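Need tokens for this chain, all 97 residues.
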Amino acid sequence: MNIPKKTKRYCPYCKKHTEHNILQVKSKPRPKTKKNALKLGVRRHARKTSGYHGSTSPKVKPVKTSKKVNIIFECAECGKKQYKLHQVRAKKIKQGV
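Here are the structure tokens for all 97 residues:
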């Protein structure tokens, strides 16, 4: 996927259209919190797998061929950054084309 290094878009901080630098960041998985450990499904799974019972039937997940990449726009005037709303799934992202 080809993306430019710079683009003009609306900056909500400057409140006008300005030049933006485009940066790319790999998306990170959501953190597992302690709050999640109290959910019913997690408790039920822990009860089923405790002791000598072993694991419950494994669920086969489909293999993804590419990672999701976040695209960040940095305003050239004020330096504030905005994320693109939806992440992009691509094998290779080439900048400056």
